[in-house]
């Protein structure tokens, strides 16, 4: 079937340019007057046609003119309204086009294109989701540490939180790791297992002092390192990211 009028297949249904149809039909009335007059037959915007701008090349300049994408049913009716040989010819052309458009092969072809477009769209959405997961990872890790609170806890309790989050460790191993990595003092003495200066500056620990009075009246100060809320988040994130 030869192409009398160019057909646009980019959308969900074929459409033709109102200006090109107007030119093919040989209508003497200017397009900007003719088209609104045709719309008076009950055609609806967005349903039967969509307004657009087309570029027209003049002798020495280029300018834009209003145009319209017409559905094939509307184009057929406009052809009938003209009551001319050109109108009849164009209508027959559109009837053949509709028949070809609705063949099982064309229907299947459109379905495959739609499926392919949906797969591509899902692939893009999945890639974006993976990127968002990467960006949100620190927050996800924080959410997983449901036991983390703003109150201070003992290092043994931190070991329990780590274990709940999939890190196999216990109190003794955690103490050893904290000493080996410079968070607790590893030098034997009165400061043994106390937070290092670095840990205190980072706000990871607090030192709780408890006054103990013995039966003989002797008083001593017992110091216990406690992990702050910030420290809990810090160590859970650090172990989860390892």
Features:
242 residues, alpha+beta, four-stranded antiparallel beta sheet, three-stranded antiparallel beta sheet, 7 strands, rod-shaped
Describe this structure in words.
- The chain has 242 residues and is an alpha+beta fold.
- It has three domains: 7-102, no CATH class; 105-134; 153-241, no CATH class.
- The chain is built from nine helices and seven strands, in the order ββααββαααβαααββα.
- The strands form two sheets. Strands 1-2-4-3 form a four-stranded antiparallel β-sheet. A three-stranded antiparallel β-sheet has the order 5-7-6.
- Helix 3 (72-82) packs antiparallel against helix 4 (85-101) and helix 6 (155-164) crosses helix 7.
- The relative contact order is 0.08.
- The mean pLDDT is 83.
Sequence of secondary-structure elements: EEHHEEHHHEHHHEEH
By DSSP (H or I, 4+ residues per run), the number of helices equals 9
Strand order of the largest sheet: 1-2-4-3
What is the terminal-to-terminal distance? 67 Å
Strand content: 15-25%
Shape: rod-shaped
Number of strands: 7
> How many distinct domains?
3
As a whole number of angstroms, the C-alpha radius of gyration is: 39 Å
Class per helix and strand makeup? alpha+beta
Overall pLDDT: 83
Oligomer: single chain
Main sheet specs:
4 strands, antiparallel
Weakly predicted, low-confidence segments: none
**Helix coverage percent:** 40-55%
